[in-house]
Amino acid sequence: xxxxxxxxxxxxxxxxxxxxxxxxxxxxxxxxxxxxxxxxxxxxxxxxxxxxxxxxxxxxxxxxxxxxxxxxxxxxxxxxxxxxxxxxxxxxxxxxxxxxxxxxxxxxxxxxxxxxxxxxxxxxxxxxxxxxxxxxxxxxxxxxxxxxxxxxxxxxxxxxxxxxxxxxxxxxxxxxxxxxxxxxxxxxxxxxxxxxxxxxxxxxxxxxxxxxxxxxxxxxxxxxxxxxxxxxxxxxxxxxxxxxxxxxxxxxxxxxxxxxxxxxxxxxxxxxxxxxxxxxxxxxxxxxxxxxxxxxxxxxxxxxxxxxxxxxxxxxxxxxxxxxxxxxxxxxxxxxxxxxxxxxxxxxxxxxxxxxxxxxxxxxxxxxxxxxxxxxxxxxxxxxxxxxxxxxxxxxxxxxxxxxxxxxxxxxxxxxxxxxxxxxxxxxxxxxxxxxxxxxxxxxxxxxxxxxxxxxxxxxxxxxxxxxxxxxxxxxxxxxxxxxxxxxxxxxxxxxxxxxxxxxxxxxxxxxxxxxxxxxxxxx
Length: 524
Prior knowledge:
Low-confidence stretches: 1-38
Shape: globular
Structural class: mainly beta
């Protein structure tokens, strides 16, 4: 028997490629939830569900607008192969084998460690670059572009980039275009008697993909320092540059070394460097936009910073507190309430000696960290975490390389999903009865109806995550027109510069601090 807390009710979809109405009533993982425990503190620290198998190592994950998760990274043994496989996980089917569909790579393009984003008008997955072999040697790159269509679950190739890129970042712009920056083009290889040596090279010129698929290079914004070979010629500025659209419409870039930049993607581009810097970090540490124009960045020595980029001048940097543990190769996820959850990682790098099974929660209103629930297994290099429409987080993967080949996942259930009486039981959830089923614009009012009185409304952009970086997610709190009413009016974010076009999870909350399952809406 299914209680109301375990129902996943995405709503009635109006977008032509989404799932039919018969598949709309989803299970919200209630059938795999943690067992009830007397004296449980799940309402304070959350709880993990059981460890479950995945067909591949989910090195990259992307939430599709139909509520399914697209993942890729390896073959079914966890090995890195040129013609890697894709997996669709349907959370409505739980965590059994039947919930996963393994798909072939029909373009025969290796997108291992590619750049990724969602195409705003269609919700298709965009993958730029990836790995290539040269003379049988791996870890080179290519310039191919692939598109995943969730209406047919197929991959097709689009017009290629001008530059080869491996480990690049793709940022969705306010006009629906994408700017791609960073990535390596050639690896350093000393050569053998039969295979020639190669010299490391990078792709320091960004380029923009128009909505029609054509590319233009930002030739005036070429920079080794911001997203190329720096520092010292073979550095890591190119490694998934941490970049976001800022509220002025430009692209803010936070360097692993603590430097900060602004990229204007218009025309042939323009790059400027801020005078401000922050504590240096590692490319294995996460940074995430947790509120409009505000970024939480975990740096070296457990230090966290908050970078406020809401004004047009220098970024304003403040303390984000101190984590309990050093978490190299961890993941940061913005939860449905705007808190940030960090899981996995190790103080000794991609190594089990210092691996953390416990997780940490960060309260953005107080800046305080607290220790949260323990996972079953370590999550290190090539692990991922992604917020789901029911407010839980799927976390999985790790390995290739690494001490464990993690063909598995776990679901984290945050504290807001539980009764506050210490029973460890899920709380009854409000249900969204009515919400927009067609695209809405910016700064637009719309009504929401729920089964409970609505205390607050939140919005989270659907995510795309890999290598400790979710470059798509954003979070908003939408003030409601009146308190303690089942029907409220809210206003969408002010502009595309604050909320880039695309798909967002809409949550309503009751007075007890319990969220609904989200309805996925489109802003554009």
